[in-house]
Amino acid sequence: MSGLPDRKEAQVRRLLQGPYPPVPTGLAAGAAARGDRLLRRRRALRRFGWAVLFAAAVAFVVWASLTHPWTAPPTGVSPPLQGW
What mean pLDDT is predicted for residues 40-67? Predict the structure, then answer.
């Protein structure tokens, strides 16, 4: 089993020493354009997420200011007795 790493290493050395394959002409420009699209999409999604979070916070504040959920609900048992 000690011969396997040497065989693989020899194959890798031959690949690295041989002629390099031709690179397509528009590869770098296409990769840069795709990277720009990904960055723009990520930035737009982040802005959309912050806008939704801000809108939810504003909606919660408006709802809480109108309904006052922190106060105790009125008891519906009976009115207080007065004049006895």
Answer: 97
What the block records as the tokens of 45 is: 């999604």
DSSP-based three-state secondary structure for 15: helix
Residue 71 main-chain phi, psi, to 5 deg = -85, 150
Model-level pTM greater than 0.70? no
The C-alpha atoms of residue 58 and residue 66 are separated, in whole angstroms, by 12
Collect contacts of 18-27 with beta carbons under 8 A, ≥24 apart.
none
Q: How far is the C-alpha of 32 from the C-alpha of 40, rounded, in Å?
A: 12
| CA atoms of 57 and 64, how far apart (whole Å) | 10
E-only strand ranges, 1-84:
none
